[in-house]
Amino acid sequence: MTGGIGPIPIDTRGLERDVLGDLYHTLLTTSWPRLIALMAAGWLATNVLFGGLLLLGPWLGGEAVQNATPGSFKDAFFFTVQTSATIGYGGMLPVTLYGHTLVAIISFVSILQNAMATGLMFAKFAQPSARILFSLRPVIFARDGYNVLQFRLANGRLNQVVEGRVRLSLARDTVESDGERMRRLINLPLVRSESPVFVLTFLAQHVIDEQSPLWGETPESLAANATQFIITFTGIDESFNATIHARHSYTSRHVAWGWKLADIISKPTGGDPLGRRLLDFTKFHDVVEDGWLG
To answer: Rounded to an integer, what distance in angstroms lies between the CA atom of residue 156 and that of residue 95?
Structure first.
């Protein structure tokens, strides 16, 4: 999933997080560096714990590990590492009932940790994801007597995404008849919102006519109402054979009034009998001055 620019910050109060109940969701949605760091911290804590427990051997029947330096935490720690990883170099081994009991517990805990880590890493790695590119700025320009809101999408992987659907929503502050201030979410119809095969680019356009919620709006009025444009994309990625989605957002200050998006698709020099097209991503975010009905 992708995030947009200019999100409206939201502070919360009184919402308690169920860390243990949502642990799987939290780990699955966290970043790769943080996930690996958490796994490393859990692995280290487990070995430190059992290494410390092995040092209690002299008070519970004698030294728990043969060939380990008495009272050496270093030897106890690395013995737990070897046990949990089933390495078994043979230099150190348990010799008392307490030692054998701890080895059994270490083996069981390591099985659980390895199973959970493997499942979590695979689930996170195998998650279908979208690489949908969005133009840096939406534009508003004049066409056929009306202003048109336009932004661009592209499939960054250039693979087959079928049944692509784009939705555009408008979020803004409104004042109700009783004076209550509310945040409203309004759907903005697009000239074309679907693409049977999304491979190249997609120009999404909303005509600002008399039926449009943007009719009569100006840059100042949009800013005064904390206007935000929210875009969602869904489609079926043939590589994963699964539904993918992406989202993006713009605030009113990102709208380029009186500009339009530059054309980035052209035919190769000399033509091509197969109908090939040249997609110039170096111009993906470029805009050209055009004009608008202010």
So the answer is: 60
Answer whether 201's CB lies under 8 Å from 279's CB.
Answer: yes
Phi, psi of 246 (to 5 degrees): -145, 155
**Helix or strand holding residue 150 (H, E):** strand 146-155
Are residues 138 and 83 located together in one domain of the fold?
Answer: no
> 78 and 155 share a domain?
no
Helix (H) or strand (E) holding 289: strand 287-289
Global pTM value: 0.74
Q: What is the mean pLDDT of residues 284-294?
A: 88
Whole-number Å distance between alpha carbons of 40 and 44:
6
Is the pLDDT at 197 greater than 70? The verdict is yes
**More confident: 169 or 293:** 169
Determine phi and psi for 82, rounding to 5 degrees. -65, -40
Is 218 a member of any domain?
yes
Task: Judge if 80 and 158 occupy the same domain.
Answer: no
Whether 200 has a pLDDT exceeding 60, the answer reads: yes
CB-based contact 281:264 (threshold 8 Å): yes
SS3 of 66, please? strand
